[in-house]
Amino acid sequence: MLNIGRLAPDGETYYLDTVAAAVEDYYTGVGESPGYWLTESAAGLGLAGRVAAADLRNVLGARDPKTGLE
Fold first, then answer.
1. How confident is the model at residue 25 (pLDDT cuts 50, 70, 90)?
2. 31 CB neighbour count, 10 Å cutoff
3. How high is the pLDDT of residue 27?
4. How far apart are CA 32 and CA 44, in angstroms?
5. Which of 4-8, 31-35, 48-52 has the lowest mean pLDDT?
6. How crowded is residue 40: how many other Cβ atoms within 10 Å of its Cβ?
7. How far apart are CA 44 and CA 35, in angstroms?
8. E strand or H helix at 49, and its extent?
9. pTM (two decimals)
10. Rounded distance, CA 45 to CA 13, Å?
């Protein structure tokens, strides 16, 4: 399911903590499926494929996703 909405500061923790650890977990109802970068904006930042926790935290914190610098 696509979920678009505002996150409160540090709100990504909830989403990251509910991602299924493995595909079996998702199908047994233990967690959500992992997110994937889909936009051209993400590609422009060098983001592609499955969303890594550190990259998400950096993007939401207005930092470079690869270096962590503002």
1. low
2. 14
3. 66
4. 26
5. 4-8
6. 7
7. 18
8. strand 49-50
9. 0.67
10. 22
Cβ 34 vs Cβ 17: under 8 Å? no
Q: Domain limits of the chain?
A: 12-60
List helix spans (H) across the chain: 12-17, 23-27, 40-44, 53-60
Please state, in angstroms and rounded to a whole number, the distance separating the CA atoms of residues 70 and 49: 23
Q: Is the dihedral of CA 17, 20, 25, 26 positive or negative?
A: positive
Compute φ and ψ for 31, nearest 5 degrees.
-160, 175
Residue 63 is classified by DSSP as: S
Q: How far apart are CA 20 and CA 29, in angstroms?
A: 9
Q: Under 8 Å CB-to-CB from 16, ≥6 apart: which residues?
A: 53, 56
